[in-house]
Write a structure and sequence with these properties.
Helix content: 25-40%
Shape: globular
Strand content: 15-25%
Distance between the termini: 72 Å
Length: 489
C-alpha cells in the first residue's frame, strides 16, 4: 500500500525512525518542510527499505505484482522495483526492472534500482520548482566530450527544441518536464557508477526500463534490451499487446551508425548469427549484446551510451496493465503470449510469478541445450478492480515468505560489495556456477524446491550471453602446440 501523507505536507511518517532527526534538521535549517530541497534531503536520508509503498522483493500490492527468479547462469543479476505514491506524490507510481551483466552486474543493477528513482525525483522537483541545480547533480561541461557526453548534449538539445508551440499542444507539460528529468537523472546515475568506490563497472553494467505513471499519463525511460508492453482492449473487446519500448540492440541502424562513428565494431559470432554485439576497435572483447547500458565504461568511448529513449502514452479505460520484464522473458515469449498469460492469472498477485514460470518452461522446451536466463517481471495494473487483488503473494511457501507493500524488510543488499574478481568465462561457453555465487541475503533469489533440481538436458552454450570476452585466435601458436603434441606421441 502507498503512503497516506499528502504531497503538500511532505512530512515523514510518525513511526519513521528518522522523524525526530528530521524535525531537528527542520528547526536548525529553518526551511519550510514543504520545500523541494527539504523533501529531497528527506528521501535521500530515509532508509530505502522502510519507505512505505516501495516494493523490491517478490510480492504484490493493490496495483502491482513482482517476481524474479534466478536462472542457471549463476547469481541472479536482475532487480526490480515498484514505488507507490512515488516520493509522496499522490496517484504517482514509479516502476522499473534492471538486468545486470558482467562480473559485478548484480551489484550494478541493485545500485541503479536504489539510486535512480531518487535522482529522478530530485531533477523532477528542480524542474517543477525552477530552482538552481544542486551542486551534487551539476553537470561539468568543461573539456572535450566523449560519445556518451555528446549523445546527452544532443538529447538535451533535442528536448529543448521540441518544446515549441505546436509540440506543446501535442504533448502535456508533464511529459516535457519528466523527459528532461529522465535524461538528467540517467546521466548523473552513470557518472556516479563511474566513480563508485566498491563496484567495478568497467566491464559490468545493467539495462533499465522504467516508468512513471501519474493519473492517466505514462512516461517511460528505457536503456538496453529489457522491454515494456501494454495489455489493452480493442473495440471488439479482444486483448492485444502494444509494445511501448524498442529493444536498443546494436543491430538497429541508428545504434550501429553511432557505434561505428565512435570506432566501435558491431558484428555477430558465427554460432549465434542473430545476436549483434559491440566490440572494442582493436580487441575481440567484450561483445556486449546491447547498444545502451549503465556502466560498461570500457565501451563508453566507442559508441555505447546510457541516454534513455523517453516516450509518452495517454492511458484510456481500455488499457488494463503494463508488463516490464528483462530479456529472460522476451527471448522465449512473444508480446501477445505475455499479455495472455498475465490476463489468465487466477489472481493479480500471482501474475508476475505465473509469467516467470511460463518463461522457464519455454526456455527448457525451445532451447534445451541452453541455460535458463534470470527473469524479473513487474505487472502494473491500471484499473482499480479490488476484487481481484490480494496484497501479498499467498502462494509463496514458508521458506520464501515475502513482505507485502505495507511491511518491508531489510534484505541486506545495501552493503553487499562482494563480487568475482574478474570475468570468469571465455569463448561462448559459460561455466556452470550454480550456487557458487548465490546471494543468500536476497529472499527473492531463492529457487523453489521443485525448480532447484538441475534439469537433465545437455549442458550447452547459453543462447544469449549478454557479455563475452573472447581470446584472440593465433594460428601460428595453435600449429606449434599441435606439432608439439605429435612429437611427444
Amino acid at each position: 500500500m502507498g503512503s497516506c501523507f499528502s504531497a503538500e505536507s511532505r512530512s515523514p511518517l510518525p513511526t519513521s525512525p528518522s522523524s525526530s532527526s528530521f524535525r531537528k534538521r527542520k528547526n536548525s535549517s529553518k526551511k519550510r518542510l514543504g520545500s523541494r530541497t527539504s523533501s529531497f534531503e528527506y528521501w535521500r536520508n530515509e532508509p530505502l527499505h522502510r519507505i512505505p509503498g516501495r516494493i523490491f522483493l517478490n510480492g504484490s500490492s493493490q496495483v502491482a505484482s513482482l517476481f524474479t527468479q534466478q536462472g542457471k547462469k549463476g547469481t541472479n543479476q536482475d532487480a526490480m522495483i515498484v514505488w507507490e505514491n512515488f516520493c509522496s506524490r499522490q496517484d504517482t507510481i514509479f516502476c522499473g526492472v534492471f538486468d545486470g551483466h558482467g562480473p559485478f552486474g548484480h551489484m550494478v543493477a541493485k545500485r541503479v534500482r536504489d539510486s535512480l528513482p531518487l535522482k529522478l525525483n530530485a531533477h523532477w522537483e528542480l524542474n517543477v520548482s525552477g530552482e538552481e541545480v544542486l551542486k551534487e547533480i551539476s553537470i561539468n561541461t568543461a573539456g572535450s566530450m566523449n560519445s556518451e557526453e555528446s549523445a546527452f548534449a544532443s538529447a538535451d538539445e533535442e528536448s529543448r527544441t521540441s518544446i515549441d508551440a505546436e509540440e506543446t499542444e501535442k504533448q502535456p507539460e508533464i511529459f516535457q518536464t519528466l523527459k528532461e528529468s529522465f535524461l538528467k537523472a540517467f546521466k548523473v546515475m552513470d557518472r556516479e557508477l563511474k566513480t563508485h568506490q566498491s563496484i567495478d563497472c568497467f566491464c559490468s553494467g545493467t539495462t533499465a526500463v522504467t516508468l512513471v505513471k501519474q493519473g492517466h499519463d505514462l512516461i517511460i525511460g528505457n536503456v538496453g534490451d529489457s522491454r515494456a508492453v501494454l495489455g489493452t482492449r480493442e473495440k471488439d473487446n479482444s486483448l492485444v499487446a502494444v509494445q511501448l519500448t524498442v529493444d536498443l540492440k546494436p543491430n538497429l541502424p541508428a545504434e550501429a551508425e553511432r557505434i561505428h562513428k565512435c570506432k566501435g565494431r558491431v558484428f555477430a559470432l558465427h554460432d549465434e548469427p542473430e545476436v549483434a554485439r559491440v566490440w572494442l576497435p582493436n580487441n575481440d572483447s567484450p561483445g556486449l549484446a546491447m547498444a545502451r547500458a549503465f556502466g560498461d565504461f570500457c565501451l563508453k568511448d566507442f559508441g555505447l551510451i546510457s541516454v534513455p529513449e523517453v516516450s509518452y502514452r495517454r492511458l484510456t479505460e481500455k488499457d488494463e496493465f503494463v508488463v516490464l520484464a528483462t530479456d529472460g522473458i522476451w527471448d522465449v515469449l512473444t508480446n501477445k503470449e505475455v499479455v495472455d498469460i498475465v490476463a489468465a492469472a487466477p489472481r493479480r498477485s500471482s501474475a508476475a510469478r505465473a509469467l516467470v514460470e511460463s518463461a522457464v518452461r519455454s526456455w527448457r522446451y525451445k532451447y534445451p541445450t541452453s541455460k535458463v536466463d534470470d527473469c524479473a517481471v513487474v505487472c502494473l495494473f491500471l484499473n482499480s478492480d479490488l476484487n481481484n487483488v490480494i496484497s501479498a503473494s499467498s502462494h509463496a511457501n514458508s521458506k520464501e515468505q515475502q513482505p507485502s507493500s505495507t511491511t518491508q524488510v531489510h534484505n541486506g543488499e545495501e552493503e553487499d560489495v562482494s563480487g568475482p574478481p574478474a570475468l570468469e568465462r571465455s569463448g561462448t561457453c559459460r561455466p556452470n556456477n550454480d550456487g557458487s555465487h548465490e546471494d543468500n541475503n536476497n529472499v527473492q533469489e531463492e529457487i523453489d524446491a521443485d525448480l532447484e533440481t538441475e534439469w537433465s538436458a545437455l549442458e550447452g552454450v547459453s543462447r544469449v550471453n549478454t557479455l563475452l570476452t573472447l581470446p584472440r585466435f593465433n594460428p601460428d601458436k595453435e600449429d606449434k602446440a599441435a606439432a608439439g603434441i605429435r612429437k611427444r606421441k
